[in-house]
Design goal:
TNP-like_GBD; Transposable element P transposase-like GTP-binding insertion domain-containing protein; mainly alpha; two-stranded antiparallel ribbon; 11 helices
Amino acid sequence: MHSGSGKCTRYMWNNGQHLLWQHITEIFYQDLDNGLKLLPRLSYEHVNLTPYFVMRVNLAAKVLSASVAAVQKTFGPPGTAGTAKLCEMIDGFFDCLDVRSMAEHQRKRKPFLAPYTSVNDERFAWLMEFLDYLRTWKENVDNRPGNFTQNTRKRMFLSWQTYEGFCISVHSAVEVTKFLLQEGFEIVLTERFCQDPVEEYFGGQWKLGRRSDNPDLKTFGYNSNTLRMQRTVSCQSGYTRGRKDKTRAWEQVTDVKLPCREKLKL
C-alpha cells in the first residue's frame, strides 16, 4: 500500500482513481491539528513506515480500516474515493479471516467478527465479491487506454504475489470453514487458521542470520539448533509478536547464590 511514496514501486490506479499512500498521510496530519480526533488509533508509526514497521500486520490493520475509509469519504477530497474503497474492502477481509471470539462482534459492533455458524453465512458471498473487486481492478488496469509499458501497468495494481495470496487465502478459508460446519462443528473461528509458527521460525532464522540472507546448510542448521534451545528455556504462547511467556520462562532457574568453591589445599 506504499503507493506513490518512497521509491514509488507502486502507483496504483483503478477506474479513474489513484490509490496513494499520500491520501492516508494527508488525512492523518490534518487530524493532528483537530481538537477532537477522528483517527485516534493512528500514530506516527502508522504513516512513517520503516523496514521493520512494514512487516507489522497490526499497523496495517489499523491503517487499512473502516474508520480510515469513513474519514476519507466524509472529509477527504473526491480524488481519495479509490483509496477509501480499498481501505474498506481490506478491513472487511481482515474481519472475515480474524474471527477470534464469541462476543467481539458485539463489543466492536462489527458483524463480520461474529463466529461462523452456518454454511450459508453471508460473509462467504462477500469474500467472493472481494475477489471480484480485485479481479475487476486488474482488468481495468490491463484495459486502461494509453501508451503504457507492461512494467508501468504492473505498478498500477497489487504485486502478483499479494494478489495470489488474497485468492488462495479466500478460497481456502471458505472451503475449510464450510467443511468444518458440514462435519458437525457448531462454530468456527477463522483466526485459528494461521501460519504464525512458520512465520515465527523463519523470522528467527532471519534475525539470527543478520546481514546474511543466503545461508548455507551448516549455518541454517546451527541457527535451527539455537532456536530449539531458546524454546526449551522459554515457554511459547500467543501470537508471533511477543510469544515468550515471561511468567513461565526459565522455570528451573532461581536467584539462589551459588556455593563458594572450596580453596585448594596446598
